[in-house]
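User: quick one, sequence for these tokens?
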């Protein structure tokens, strides 16, 4: 018997809600207000379906080779993350076990980075990502410098920070938000990292620190941290300036300890006073978790640590925001317990092998020049050979039509005329997918050779946001 309005009258809508198939519901046929709150409610399943379907318009995370951020975790980790979804991390008094787990993660990371342990407590904090950690480490460097200058009766009004032009935009933000002069040193054709000598020449008595990047966002290269350290030791000895070295190990911090354990880039070097690392990159955790670690207590000025008791006992914090989720911290601990050194080493070695395969194959096909190099992050960065009548942006656009998300962007100042494509090889990207990516790249290049774009689209030349 067909259900009709005439037969059941005023209860028609309600009856339809209960028995109608999902796409028989009126919510599926009428627009939902997008920019103001609807007057009425809707069934939970319908709300879920509508939002779930709209999200299909996003790219596929596993094919998103633009991002360094984890897109896959084990189902047991998913389960734990959902279990703690309702726990606000800041409620330390209410969730003491979560708090202890954060402290354990800090100790594990500090140990991986060869920090000197302070009794039982390593010096560090979880953050939302490397960006927050960078702001915190930058603030600590600035405050330490102010304290040193004030003790000498010297000027404290013009702090500066020295770094390469390959820095992530967060460093520029830090400098602008916290009134620090940003001294970016240019790259050069064939050198996509900082030049230590040039960096030292940019330092003076107002330099709060020098930043070295363990895995640049642009090409994945490790900056020469040991050379920066040695140069800074010599400079500080000569001038008495005490300039700190900070390592932005957003990506490399969870690659180097496992893939290159003998590489000296961390607290083994005396000038390294603080390190940031993203748990949600090669720490293999969903977004958002990062870590800020200091060499020793004296590197984190006490006046930056806040004590409050809103939530019960006295708790001390150094962060930019108050409430935050617990899930990624628990996810990080899951990985530490589950993987141990052996598991992380196995993952990193597979990723580097896949990188090696991509590098070799792309190089041998001759249409791209590989700028990235093995011995660094498993990140493939290429530029097209000049004889191809198409731009990197055209290639990225055509790959996107096939589902692959591969960013094209200009390099930083001094080499900004170079436009490159980048693929981040991260967990979830298998050798098999690598094969398929190369096949797609080959097809796209052949297609563009046959039908070159009428005119390459003009692109912005100023520094782009690369993430
Ligand atoms: C070198 C570097 N530093 C900092 C960041 C910012 O990290 P997050 O996304 O964890 O805030 C990134 C992000 O890609 C990065 O590559």
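Assistant:
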């Amino acid at each position: 018997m067909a259900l009709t309005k005439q037969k059941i009258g005023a209860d028609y809508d309600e009856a339809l809600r209960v028995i109608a198939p999902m796409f028989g519901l009126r919510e599926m046929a009428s627009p939902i207000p997008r920019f103001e709150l609807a007057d009425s409610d809707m069934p939970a399943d319908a709300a879920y379906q509508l939002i779930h379907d709209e999200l299909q318009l996003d790219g596929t995370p596993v094919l998103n080779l633009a991002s360094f951020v984890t897109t896959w975790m084990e189902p047991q980790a998913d389960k734990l993350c959902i279990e703690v979804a309702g726990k606000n991390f800041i409620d330390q008094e209410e969730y003491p076990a979560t708090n202890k787990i954060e402290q354990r993660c800090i100790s594990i990371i500090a140990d991986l980075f060869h920090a000197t342990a302070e009794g039982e407590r390593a010096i560090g904090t979880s953050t939302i990502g490397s960006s927050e950690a960078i702001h915190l480490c930058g603030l600590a460097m600035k405050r330490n410098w102010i304290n040193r200058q004030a003790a000498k009766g010297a000027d404290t009004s013009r702090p500066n920070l020295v770094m390469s032009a390959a820095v992530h935009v967060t460093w520029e933000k830090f400098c602008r938000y916290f009134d620090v002069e940003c001294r970016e040193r240019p790259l050069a054709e064939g050198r996509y990292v900082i030049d230590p000598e040039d960096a030292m020449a940019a330092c003076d008595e107002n330099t709060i620190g020098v930043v070295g990047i363990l895995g640049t966002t642009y090409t994945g290269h490790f900056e020469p941290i040991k050379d920066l350290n040695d140069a800074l030791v010599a400079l500080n000895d000569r001038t008495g300036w005490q300039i700190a070295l900070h390592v932005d190990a957003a990506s490399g911090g969870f690659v180097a300890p496992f893939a290159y354990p003998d590489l000296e880039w961390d607290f083994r070097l005396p000038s390294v006073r603080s390190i940031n690392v993203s748990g949600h990159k090669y720490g293999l955790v969903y977004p958002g978790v990062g870590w800020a670690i200091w060499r020793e207590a004296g590197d984190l000025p006490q006046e930056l640590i806040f004590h409050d008791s809103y939530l019960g006992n006295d708790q001390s914090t150094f962060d930019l925001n108050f409430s935050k989720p617990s899930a990624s911290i628990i996810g990080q601990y899951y990985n530490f317990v589950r993987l141990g050194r052996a598991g992380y080493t196995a993952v990193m070695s597979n990723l580097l092998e896949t990188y090696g395969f991509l590098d070799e194959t792309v190089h041998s096909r001759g249409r791209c020049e590989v700028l990235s190099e093995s011995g660094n992050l498993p990140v493939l960065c290429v530029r097209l050979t000049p004889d191809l009548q198409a731009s990197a942006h055209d290639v990225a656009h055509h790959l996107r039509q096939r589902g692959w998300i591969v960013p094209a962007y200009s390099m930083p100042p001094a080499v900004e005329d170079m436009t490159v494509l980048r693929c981040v090889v991260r967990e979830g990207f298998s050798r098999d997918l690598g094969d398929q990516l190369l096949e797609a790249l080959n097809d796209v290049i052949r297609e563009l050779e046959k039908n070159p774009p009428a005119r390459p689209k003009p692109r912005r030349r100023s520094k782009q946001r690369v993430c």
